[in-house]
Each structure stands twice: as structure tokens, then as C-alpha cells.
Design goal:
The complex is a heterodimer of chains A (178) and B (246). By secondary structure, chain A is mostly helical. In chain A, 67% of the residues lie in helices and 0% in strands. Chain B has a seven-stranded antiparallel beta sheet with strand order 1-2-3-4-7-6-5, sandwiched between helices. The longest helix of chain B is centred in the middle third of the chain and has 21 residues. The chains are: A mainly alpha (178), B alpha+beta (246). At the A-B interface, helix 1, helix 2, helix 3, helix 4 and helix 5 of A face helix 4, helix 5, helix 6 and helix 7 of B.
Amino acid sequence: MIGFGQPSRRAEFEGAILPHLDAAFSLARFLLRNDQDAEDAVQDASLRAFRFFDSFRGQNSRAWFLRIVRNTAFTALKRARGHEEDVLFDEELHTPENADAGVASRLDQVHDRETVRAAIEQLAPEFREVITLRELEECSYKEIAEIAAVPVGTVMSRLARARAQLAEILSTTYVKEE
Amino acid sequence: MEHEEIKSLIHPYADGELDAANVRLVEAHLQSCPECRSTEISIRSLRTALTNSAPAFRAPASLRNTIRAGLGRETVTERQTSWPSLSLALGTACALLLVGLVIFQANRTSRNSIADQVVADHIRSLLATHLVDIPSSDQHTVKPWFNGKVDFAPEVRDFAAEGFPLVGGRLDYLDGRTVVALVYRRNKHPINLLISPAPGQADASPGALARRGYNLVHWTRGEMNYWAVSDVNSTELQQFAAHFAP
């Protein structure tokens, strides 16, 4: 039946958010690097999103929800670091400028899921984020900028460096295992 | 000099983020620059590795239920602060008012409000786990199922080869009448295609719009109205429409 009146706020919320649960969990899992923390973060983020649902104006529910998930996960990351020395994120650090010619051909042979997951987990959080959003969730640069709250130019430079590092890690891991 | 400028465009080029003019610029440069060519190849090889290994995680089944339970507790808290009988009365009054409006303005229902209803149908089909009444990827099974259930014969075609497999069919309601809902899938995303008769209406080519985070494409063909709705991106949904309305 056509509903008389609006669907309930909760039904509308579930319709907007639940289709993106896999994407949300995957992002949180790569950021936090364990199942339980990722589940907790997505659950927290869902409740926060529900409380702020009135502020959602219905443009892009995936980007809106993923932004809340990523903020929750980064807060948890900072809390976990606690008293450890604060590791500042340095985009310039340890980034090979040019991959050597053999890297691409070795990458073409990488098939193992756990190897790739472990390689992504070695990256800095901001790089794990941009790889997950672009390569796994196929978000546009504009969406990534919205989710991570950074300019598109920053998305581009992070993506370039994240890819170079990931290619380097994967190709050396792969050679070691051969 | 050219190399320094274009180097930064290789990633957006490989990601399909450049406009046509810059695409031509990058492609011309790639012909003559081995360094940029090697960057481009390495981006594509990394993508192949990521596609082949599919490292994305999937949410555990229990998470959905945990979240729903959490939302349930939130909703109960909200309700306790309201006055149930008053809200029921208000709800009924609103419903009656709406019925009046629907009857009074039946002929003036705008495309906008139909778009809202299409989205509501789509959301409801996902929530109720009632995506399909007749689950079948066979167009010759789905089409006859609608016989006697609706007073028109919808065109049912499978586009599995084009990346939009038919999942099944369902009866739904739109703009006060029973309509045919065909369900397709694009990767993991369901697409609802709502079909209703449009006697006397001229053909209209597909037009895209967006509502509450969902994309819609609407067209009219052979005196039938078509509404496609999904959370897939607008470009893919328009590709889908193009297959259906060539």
C-alpha cells in the first residue's frame, strides 16, 4: 500500500543506512585492524547517526554514514594509542617516488586475500582509509573528500602515496613468499 | 615541464576523474613518457591485485541485529516521552486528511511526489525482506506470473549479459494503483524497476533525479511509465535504463 503519511523515522533511517553496513564494517575493520573494535565502532556510529538523522538532508547516505563511521573509528584509534607517543601522520615519510619496473608484473600475480589485507594494514591510518574508500568501495574523489573532511587535492596526493607504498609492500611480500 | 604538470594527473586519469580535455592531454603525454606510463601500469596492476584478492570485509550477520536492537532501545526511549493516544489520534487525522488530498488532487500528482513514492517503495522492498514475490531470473517465468494480477502485460527482459541480472518480480503500489515491480541486481545492489500503464502519454527519454540518497531514472515508452530506483550510482542506473529503453 502507499503509506499514508511518512514511513517511521526509524524505518527511513534503516533504509538509508543498512544497505551500507558492509562498506561501513570494512572501513572500520581496516582502520582498527580487529573484528571486535570494528563491530563496536559501527554500532556506536549507527546510534550516533540515528540521533543526528534529522540533520541528514538526503544527498548521499553512504558518504554521510561512512563519515560518521570513520570519525568514530579515528576517535577509537586515538584513544587506543593512549599514552604511547603520539605518532604524527607524515605523508612524506617512506614513500618511494617511482616503483621499479618489476613491481607491476609481480602485482599481477597477487591473489591471496590475507596477504593483501595484511599489506593494507601496514599502511598509516589515513592511507588505509583512502585505499579502502577508493579501491574497495569505489568512492569518487569528491565522496572521499566529504568522508575524510579534507580537500580533493589531499585525497589525490594521499591516494598516490598510498598506492605507491601498497604496491611496494605487496611486491616485496610476494617475492619473499616465492 | 609538461611532465611535472601531467604527473599529478595520472592517478585521477586512471580513476576516471578527468574531463575529456585532460584525458586527451594525459593520453598524448603517456605516448612519449615512459615514467608516467609505468606509473599508470602500476596503478592498474595494483587494482588487478585488489580485484583478484577481494580483501574487503563483510559485516558479520549478527551486527545488523545488534544495531537494530540498539535502535529499538533508542526508539522506546523516544516513545516514552510522547503521548501514545494523542499521537495515534493525530496520525489518524493526518491519514484522513491525506486520503482527502489524494482523492482531490489525484490528477495533479506531480512527478516529484511520485518520485518520493518510488523511493518509499524501494526502501520498503528492502526493509521487509520482501524484495520479490516471484524469485526467478527467467523472463518466461516472471512475465506469466503477472497474468491476472495486473491489467496490463509488462515487458520482462533479463540483462545478465550486460551486468544487470533479473532477480524476480513483485506487485507494488504507486500513485494509487497496483504496479509491476521487476527486481534487478547490479553487483550487490538491488534495482527496483516499477512499471505502470500511461495511456495516451507520449514517449519520453530517460531522465535522472535523486531522492534521499537514492538515484532514480524515469522514462515513458509505448504508453508505459518506467521508474528505476537504486542505490547504485546515477551513471550505472542510466546505463541500465539505456538497455531497457534503447
